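Long-time lurker, finally posting.

We've been working with DNA-binding transcriptional MerR regulator (Allocatelliglobosispora scoriae) and I want a structural starting point before designing mutants. I don't trust myself to interpret raw outputs, so I'm hoping someone here can both generate the structure tokens and explain anything notable. Sequence follows.
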Amino acid sequence: MSIGEVLAELRAEFPDTTISKLRFLESEGLVEPRRTAAGYRKYTRTDVLRLRYVLTAQRDHYLPLRVIREQLAAGAAEEGDDEPPAAVVSSIRPALVALGPHDDPPVIPAEKTARLSAVELCARAGITEALLRDLQTHGLIRVTPGEWFDAEALAIAEVAGQFAAYGVQPRHLRAWRAAADREVGVVAQLVAPILRQQDPSAQARADEAVRELTALSQRLHSALVRIGLRESR
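Top reply, 14 upvotes:
Generated this for you. Predicted structure of DNA-binding transcriptional MerR regulator:
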């Protein structure tokens, strides 16, 4: 398959994939297409399976490329297997955050359905419409211009619902929102030099940098919270 044919096949499931992204994954050693005498890339079915495995691991489990590369080297992507198994994902979490098996933060998978109505969102997240409105009022969830909710809104709604079981209301979650906004500013400054580079793969490398920085942020946050709680006893 040519790179254009591979892109056409993958975009049905991964619409954000670009030729630059495929070239970037090749430069990172995730896939090694053969070259014709004229220098054109030719992908095998195994190459496409590897790419689908990589893209699924990034989208659904937020795994950085270095971790995915290790799993591929260990033969994680076999014929017909385009989803990292649960054992792989659970084994990766300590590598991401360097925490013990009982206190590492969960990797929240992104819901593949990207367009949800308010009723659908509440049903999937297990929350009431009143809680959803409260989350919107406090700026934790935003509706898109098309009046629907995306995968990130679903993830926030699920977490907010679990917090509510402990009596934590959306107004209490504004501290997390403020901290996240500050973190966004820091990460944006760090990846800005990458995006300014005149390189077709700059966006893909910036995305990977954001994924790595997010994993580091989770590790730091978890460690600081544990230390603070230990010292407050």
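Before you design anything, note these points.
The radius of gyration is 20 Å.
Residues 2 and 42 are 5 Å apart (CA to CA).
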